[in-house]
Design goal:
Elements lengths: L1 E7 L1 H5 L3 H10 L3 E8 L3 H7 L9 H8 L4 E8 L2 H9 L12 H5 L8 E3 L3 H11 L11 H6 L1
Antiparallel strand pairs: 1-3, 1-4, 2-3
């Protein structure tokens, strides 16, 4: 089982799309094992997006992600990272196919609604930024016996 961090970004919260995004991922069979709403502070944002430090869009990215509350979720499932990445669609919503979250609801690269971990290594690091081990739940769902 893989775990992935998903951030429902401020633009999704402002546009009342959080429920639809979470529902799509759950309907795919992914299990929520941790979730919280928070207003990300700049220090956490800089750590989360450290890979982009020095790029022209970095300051705008930090301003945007800290502009409004977001929802941080850990999803778990077989091939969770790949499934979530496919369901999100391309970073640029104009290039994301219909049927993906960004293709259906995204506005532009700066307002693309969601973040999802891109590798097992990054998922582990990102999850640790947002959740303590005590905040991540391991529980049985009857549905899991049907899927896996």
């Amino acid at each position: 089982m893989e775990r992935s961090l998903v951030l429902i970004k401020p633009d999704a919260i402002q546009r009342a799309l959080a429920g639809q995004i979470i529902s799509r991922l759950e309907r795919k069979g992914l299990k929520i094992v941790a979730m919280k709403m928070l207003h990300m502070h700049k220090n956490l944002a800089r750590r989360h997006y450290a890979i982009h430090k020095g790029k022209a869009f970095f300051d705008d990215l930090i301003s945007f992600i800290t502009s409004s509350p977001l929802i941080a979720i850990v999803f778990q499932g077989e091939d969770a990272i790949q499934i979530i990445r496919q369901m999100m669609g391309e970073t640029d919503p104009a290039k994301a196919p219909g049927g993906t979250i960004r293709g259906d609801f995204g506005i532009d690269v700066g307002h693309n609604l969601v973040h999802g971990s891109d590798s097992l290594e990054n998922a582990s690091k990102e999850i640790e930024l947002f959740f303590s081990p005590e905040e991540i739940f391991d529980y049985h769902r009857e549905l899991d016996t049907w899927i896996y």
